[in-house]
Amino acid sequence: MTHSLSIRVYYEDTDMAGVVYHANFLRFLERGRSEAVRALGIDQAAMRAGGLVFVVHRVEADYLRPARYDDTLVVETRFARVRGASLHASQRVLRGGEELLRAEVGLACMSVDGGPQRIPADIRAALAAAAA
Amino acid sequence: MTHSLSIRVYYEDTDMAGVVYHANFLRFLERGRSEAVRALGIDQAAMRAGGLVFVVHRVEADYLRPARYDDTLVVETRFARVRGASLHASQRVLRGGEELLRAEVGLACMSVDGGPQRIPADIRAALAAAAA
Amino acid sequence: MTHSLSIRVYYEDTDMAGVVYHANFLRFLERGRSEAVRALGIDQAAMRAGGLVFVVHRVEADYLRPARYDDTLVVETRFARVRGASLHASQRVLRGGEELLRAEVGLACMSVDGGPQRIPADIRAALAAAAA
Amino acid sequence: MTHSLSIRVYYEDTDMAGVVYHANFLRFLERGRSEAVRALGIDQAAMRAGGLVFVVHRVEADYLRPARYDDTLVVETRFARVRGASLHASQRVLRGGEELLRAEVGLACMSVDGGPQRIPADIRAALAAAAA
Q1: What predicted TM-score, i.e. pTM, was given to this entire model?
Q2: Measuring CA to CA, how many Å separate D73 from each of A47, B123, D76, D94, D99?
Q3: In this structure, CATH architecture of domain A3-131
């Protein structure tokens, strides 16, 4: 199951090269994951209130084409490899049919105090169903 | 007493107009206040661990001249009007002798849970001495 | 005429106090102005290709209440005082009926090379009509 | 040759999990590369004025430990594989002796109008000498 989120590029996203600053694509990816997770009925605010967060432990990103001010982008998110305390997201950023960025993101469930934690069973089930 | 912090402008700070994005000046100001506070022996990390934070409740900023990539800027910070639960910072951003930005920033002491709080006496004394 | 833009708060917007970092509200305001301008048929990408940009020369912002992760905010934008080379925006950020931020923003039309420029007549007319 | 840059963590860098937001590490890496390049006598502002920029085309980052407010971090940068139109940076972020992040970054020389470009000979020579 692939989730799609539409994003507009604003001035804040660009740099003096006239394109989206490379680090800002990671924010776009995180917005995509946040909305994909929400679409599965997972409430990250409640998770955090309960002391758990998902943290990024690995990013692999290929920048294929630049994005520009005023572009409407689509962030695609597909979850995979849902394990006891970690999962993986395969993501792309597109403009029209064009691929601008491809990324593989490794995520871990952590307590807000720092240690790794098992993903709560209901959340894991929802992610696993989406990953199937 | 005026505190000065030197800051370099990086790609991340610029936008497609080729200058520092206006919101990023507020980050520079906050770096200046953080270092000015540290120079007074106030430990904001310990404050927060104790449940207190300074929050911005008002900003007045005049943008006089643009800053550009690679510029070395100086952020000047002067505290004033230190009261029971609030204080004020008068700040400037300069490049060489040129004034780029002038700002008046109102700050309040808050508990991390949200309500206004009195500034601890030792911290208030240090700020008041600097403001004198 | 008041323009409204809906914005979701993501992780990237928050800071360690658990709320939206104060400088990021300025980004939200700029997104609001960008969409308000677009709704008037003004194409800022074309303006910039033609060598003109709107720049912020003054911000006055009152932070009334914090915004939090996952909040859905509304940015309201109303243009005023449209002159030959400058204009003004009165803006608010709301959550439900609650006012979180009130801001007055002064904008100037500039050439990308730096000097002040007259706002092109058709763009000025569109802004003036919205401000009326 | 490994270049080291010291960086302080400010409020702007953190997120509501109380740690440095993952995308902001990419900014730290870019500050490290900017200063490493400057230390080699390469003037990126002049390069850009001449129509050339280095752009990131690939990032591989492993997040090993979180960074927190007030931390003093060191960004290490080592250039490698300097070719006609591209180069590579191996980077680490450390706190004291602890490794927080390891990254491999692929960079390409591009014209500001978008196409790949050869790295000017003197700049290539400086990078190659540092990479040796």
Answers
A1: 0.97
A2: 30, 26, 10, 6, 10
A3: Roll (3.10)
